[in-house]
Design a protein that fits this description.
This protein has 219 residues and is α/β, with parallel strands linked by helices. It has a single domain, classed as 3-Layer(aba) Sandwich (Rossmann fold), CATH 3.40.50.300. It is built from 10 helices and 5 strands, in the order βαβαααααβαβααβα. The protein has helices spanning 13-23, 32-44, 52-60, 64-70, 79-89, 92-107, 127-131, 145-158, 165-181, 203-218; strands spanning 2-6, 27-30, 120-124, 137-142, 194-197. The protein is globular, with a radius of gyration of 17 Å. The mean pLDDT is 91.
Length: 219
């Protein structure tokens, strides 16, 4: 079974995807990690993520093991890492270089320990439209920019990261615009995706809702 969970930053898709993968015993693939890895790779080398040539070079040399190593960087999950990821993800050559790695995983899904899995839950922005357009179930999670910015703001504070809500909101809107207007694979739900607005929902409400959808599809 292949399930895609797409949506903008801080909509709740990461937590949802991991809970679903655990419940249905499927592999979990956070596709955003690939772009964050490229972004952080450039940052650690003091290279501007907007540098087309260097971004492509990093993408072409990216491996799963290197991605996991870069994920340990202190800025990997920060706003800086997110902004860098969004910038490199807007480059068509970079996306093409990383697409095959994502698609191959659907044919040979594995758990973190290397054991074979019977399917995968993809967590991303274009997994239902580009990575796995033939996925069994496609979900698009969204929420208002204000709600998502507040979630991210609180997340940073809980982790001891200095954060200003207005700044996070401005960056959220900037990223939404960049992600939705990019020429290649813009952020949008697949035509056959089920869209869920989580602005006024708890993660448990969203989780239970999606589980009902998956269970009904499996019958």
């Amino acid at each position: 079974m292949i399930i895609t969970i797409d949506g903008p930053a801080a909509a709740g898709k990461g937590t949802l995807s991991q809970k679903l993968a655990q419940k249905y015993k499927l592999a979990y693939f956070d596709t955003g990690m690939i772009y964050r890895a490229v972004g952080i790779d450039l940052i650690t080398k003091n290279i501007d993520p907007d540098n087309d040539v260097q971004a492509l070079k990093s993408a072409e040399n990216m491996t799963f093991s290197k991605m996991m190593e870069l994920s340990k960087h202190s800025e990997f999950r920060s706003n800086l890492g997110g902004q860098a990821a969004s910038k490199v993800a807007s480059k068509t050559p970079v996306r093409q270089a990383l697409l095959k790695m994502q698609q191959d995983f659907a044919h040979n899904p594995q758990f973190a320990d290397g054991q074979q899995a019977q399917g995968v839950v993809y967590d991303g922005r274009d997994t239902g439209t580009v990575v796995c357009p033939n996925a069994d179930i496609k979900i698009f999670i969204t929420a208002s920019p204000e709600v998502r910015a507040m979630r991210r703001h609180k997340e940073f504070l809980e982790k001891g990261i200095t954060s200003d809500y207005n700044e996070v909101l401005a960056q959220t809107k900037e990223r939404d615009l960049r992600d939705s207007s990019r020429a290649s694979a813009p952020l949008k739900p697949a035509n056959d995706a089920i869209i869920i607005d989580t602005s006024d929902m708890s993660i448990e409400d969203v989780y239970n809702n999606v589980c009902q959808i998956i269970d009904s599809k499996k019958q």
